[in-house]
Amino acid sequence: MSATLLSVQTLNGLQLGVLLFLVAAGLTLVFGVMDFINLAHGVQFMIGAYLAAMFTALTDNFFLGLGLALPAALTLGLALEWLVFRHLYARDHLDQVLATFGIILFLNQAVKFVWGAAPLSVPVPTLLSGSIQLMEGLRYPIYRLAVIGAGIAVALLLSLLVSRTRIGMLVRAGAANAPMVSALGVDIGRLFMLVFGFGAMLAGFAGAMVAPLVSVEPGMGDNLLILTFVVIVIGGIGSIRGAFIAALLVGLVDTLGRAFGPLVLRLFLDASAASQAGQALAPMLIYILMAAVLFVRPAGLFPVRR
Amino acid sequence: MKIWDKGFTRGIRGGFLAAVVLAALPAGAAAQEKVRIGLLTTLSGPAATLGQQSRDAFLLAVKTLGGKLGGLEADIVVVDDELKPDVAVTRARGLVERDKVDFVVGPIFSNILIAIHKPVTDAGAFLISPNAGTSNFAGRQCHPNFFVASYQNDQNHEVMGKYAQDKGFKKVFLLAPNYQAGKDSLAGFKRHFKGEIVGEEYVPLNTADFSGELAKIAAAKPDAFFTFMPGGLGVNLVRQYHQAGLASTIPFLSAFTVDESTLPAQKEAALGFFGGSNWAPDMKNAQSEAFVTAYEAAFGTVPGSYAMHGYDAALLIDAAIRTAGGKVSDRNALRAGLRKADFTSLRGDFRMGANHYPVQDFYVVQVVRRPDGKYATSLRQKVFDDYVDAYAKDCQMRAN
Amino acid sequence: MSGAHPTAGPLRDRRPRLAGLILAGLATLPLLGALGADSYVLLLVTRVMIFAVAAISLDLILGYGAMVSFGHAAFMGIGAYAVGILATHGIEDLLAQAGVAILVSAGFAALTGAVSLRTKGVHFIMITLAFGQMAFFLAVSLAAYGGDDGLTIARRSTVLGAEWLGNATIFYYLVLAVLAATLLACRALVAARFGRVLRGTRENPVRMQAIGFEPFRYQLTAYVISGAICGLSGVLIANQTNFISPAYMAWQRSGELIVMVVLGGMGTLIGPLIGALAYLLIEEWLAGITEHWKMIFGPLLILVVLHARGGLVGAITRITGGRHG
To answer: Per residue in B1-34, pLDDT tens?
Structure first.
């Protein structure tokens, strides 16, 4: 039984990791390519979930809802880019932090203004509503497999896009030396706008995909934002591969630590002390992981060379 | 001083002017025969939905009473505690010091209650809690100026523990968020449940994915599952519990997890789940039915216990002022009125206990789909009659 | 003070004047209160000044050493918990509490700083966040001291056995004195050789090393001083609210401190004071107008970033610059 439980928990950890990667992908792209700290990535994730909830309710079909939510998230991202972000590319990181913090305040309240403060939910699409038997008494929803599939697809797509296409090449070049690329006749402003819009859409996609699993509520992106920052910093900023591996690592450490931490501690402590220490340590685990990784490798696991 | 040149001293002169302007801005209102009330609830963040229910229902009650409480014109200031204790303390002191309120009605959360209790009661105002009812203020630290219109925090959990015991469940799995209220919850459940606890797990407060815990529950094969997962946590857990197929095999017992604040998002995933409560929207009495109708007409959603307590808090104040003969300045008379609590509560049977926490009945409720398609909790059976909380015996209430 | 800001140009002359203006204004406020002004204003401004102390301590490392600490609220929390924990055990003397608060926060800063300073830039931001979160969760797990619920402190700290701080005006002036002392001490520090080296490590650490200064030692010293001052602000907030809570260490609070510094103008010391004033007073004012105040406040912050380079101090000095340039 213990072996079954261990493998089920490992699967759960991997699944949390893929979910984190979905959100982290857009963030690491914008951060790595444009050297831009976008704290608003979390609220863009939230907006994606809200848009999916609204359009799914309107069309009564999750896939139609998703199809409408994506361009809407893209439009919002481009609008934000035009209004705020493009004026900040050349500015200090902390100016970006302050401005995107302002966007967080605004959008977290705006969704409450528009959709109310009560949590919303998105039904699991009927096509993917089945489940498979995982162990005795526990079923695993097919939809979760779909989310894992989407995460892996995004990972493959991004690595292909960045390493194999002309746009990807320009993006990499633009990140390394923007004035040079600009001198070669490439419109760097448009390039950055494209990357940013794509990042916003990725955030929205992640939000829409997890909406059938979690509660859609104001501020749902805030804690996730911190987690995704942990992921991209462990992975090495700008590295898609690093983000993927770090996301899996964080997912596994968090899930397995919560599941088996007290058991491990019981080797050294008595039962009640182990359970208390386990409760205190569990939420700290990923931060301890990040501090340890940065201590050994100050630029993360896969630093991108500039 | 060498560090700052003469600009520093020139600045000092200008500073006087600015201070004069700042100090002159707010002006105190002249005293009239009015009752002043400060409503302090959580209106920021995900928990705002609870604060809104409480506030809306309180204001609805005042409106129903013709804008008056106890026959006096009611002056109501609403402030947001932002769910930050230091902000709450500042705003609460603003209510008692600047607005000179007679009553502070709030808050929703226990940690905020503990933070504002001292500044409000120290200032001589009455603090009426429409939700949080911590054990410390029910027992040793009970206070003549503090009244609770809801319950003692542990009680809804005790209902479920008693229910599980009476039902003959042998093995139960417990799950709560890793914070004080979560620990109190499980302690409350265990007060009346004497069977075996096959698992007791705590999760972080911002948990979105419960897969790991669900696997543990399935592996433990309990007769029943008890949890306390307020707000968005409950939405996540209930839907994932349902999706994992556990809903059909292991009975779901809970407190503050499936209620009218979360059901609009949980929908059919919560159907048939149990909760412990002192009220449900389908309670059969005239005042409760009128309240539910009026609330739904005004706000379009089904009121939960947060709303019911907000409404009752207004009725409690209304009754106290009437008992005191409209003399708000006579604190002793007001206190006697609050203790007498001479009003018809929405929950029917109600009296104020010696520790200023309600003595009332508790029920098992179950989630149903109403004929109009909305989801709500529904009364199933009474578990406790005229139930006094476990801490009341430790309270030695001062007369004033 | 010449040479302290070789590149700041004519702007720098206005800052001391601004500081004097604000401090004098703050010192006058309670006197007007005695004439019938609102005691709530006093309360609010006390809170502002406490946050200003914390924000100034952050500016010392953020503005002058390019060390963006995203876990600074932890120090404030440590200071607050020092008061709460000592008071529970009967030690209510302010000096004892402040001493412990400063020692423990300095110790925590030395420990975490030594690890964090191995990294730079965004990685430094994140590793300080990690330590801040660890402190937060540690406080949550302290069930004996209220855990997540927090802990009420029965009365304010005593000074030589006397309960002077219970008086709002005396407490106000104590906070003001701490604020003024913090401002002056930090000003002296950045104007001294120490501050020049610190700024040098920000601009060009390699060169500083080449001319014989070990950047790490200067940065760590600044980090420890900053942490200690922030711990002191925690002593004040615990006294002001008569309450301690893990919420004081939440990452959102650390974020608010950064926002206050950047909003006011980083690397100016007076900027964080103005930032704290603006942030908390505007919040209070807008929250009194509408429940949806964040929808106004958010865009306001964005406008400041877009149109007022160097934060509010930059804007003020530019506006008044014409006359005194």
So the answer is: 344 445 554 555 555 445 544 444 444 444 447 8
Number of independent structural domains in chain B: 2
CB distance A10 to A171 below 8 Å: no
So what's the pLDDT on residue C46? Answer: 94
Tell me, yes or no, whether B54 lies in a domain: yes
Whether B265 and A223 lie within 8 Å, measured CB to CB? no
In this complex, which of B209, B216, B233 lies closest to A16 when CB atoms are compared? Answer: B209
Structure tokens at C92: 């209510």
Interface contact B322, partner C, CB < 8 A: no
B108 touching C, CB under 8 A? no
In a domain, C50, yes or no: yes
Expressed as residue numbers, the domain containing C106 is 37-251
DSSP code of C145? G
- The Cα A215–Cα A50 span in angstroms is 10
Q: Which residues of C touch A97 (CB under 8 A)?
A: 258-259, 262
For residues B213 and B135, state if they share a domain.
no
The Cα angle at residue A257 between residues A253 and A259, in degrees rounded to 5: 125
Q: What is the pLDDT of residue C323?
A: 45
Please tell me whether residues B318 and B296 are part of one structural domain: yes
Together in a domain, B136 and B60: yes
> For A258-277, what is the mean pLDDT?
79
C190: closest chain B residue by CA: B3
pLDDT for B15: 54
B298 and B189, same structural domain? no
Q: Indicate whether A77 pLDDT > 70.
A: yes
Contact at 8 Å (CB) between C259 and C161?
A: no
What is d(CA A44, CA A206) in angstroms, rounded to the nearest whole number?
10
CA B42 to chain centre: 10
Q: Is the pLDDT of residue B74 over 80?
A: yes
Please give the C-alpha separations between residue B105 and each of A137, B125, B150, in angstroms, as whole numbers: 46, 10, 12
Name every residue whose Cβ is closer than 8 Å to that of residue B119 and which is 6 or more positions away in sequence: B89, B92, B93, B96, C242
Asked whether residue C185 is assigned to any structural domain, the reply reads yes
**What pLDDT, in 10s, does the model give residues B154-206?**
999 999 999 999 999 999 999 998 877 888 899 999 999 999 999 998 888 77
C81 domain-assigned: yes
B179 lies in the same domain as B119: no
Please state the domain count of chain C. Answer: 1
Q: Tell me the two tokens of residue A264.
A: 């491990």
Which among C62, C118, C299 has the least Cβ separation from residue A102?
Answer: C299
Q: In this model, does residue B281 exceed pLDDT 90?
A: yes
Please report whether residue C308 resides in a domain.
no
> What is the number of CB-based contacts under 8 A between chain A and chain B?
129
> Touching A: which chains, 3+ CB pairs < 8 A?
B, C
pLDDT of residue C255: 92
The distance of B86 to chain A (nearest Cα, Å) reads 20
The pLDDT, as a whole number, for residue B356 is 96
Region C204-213: what's the mean pLDDT? 81
A255 min Cα distance to partner chain C (Å):
17
Domain that holds residue B225: 155-277
Q: Provide the phi-psi class of B272: left if phi over 0, else alpha when psi is between -120 and 50, else beta.
A: left
Q: Where are the beta strands (DSSP E) in C95-175?
A: 151-152
What confidence tens digit (pLDDT) does each residue in C233-243 have? 999 999 999 99
Rounded distance between C-alpha atoms, residue C40 and residue A133, angstroms = 62
Helical (H) or strand (E) element with A157: helix A142-164
**CB of B204 less than 8 A from some CB of A:** yes
C203 shares contact with chain A (CB less than 8 Å): no
Three-state DSSP class for residue B39: strand
Q: Which one, of A21, A35, A2, A10, lies nearest residue A188 by Cα?
A: A35
Give yes or no: residues B194 and B308 share one domain.
Answer: no
Is A296 in CB contact (< 8 Å) with chain C?
no
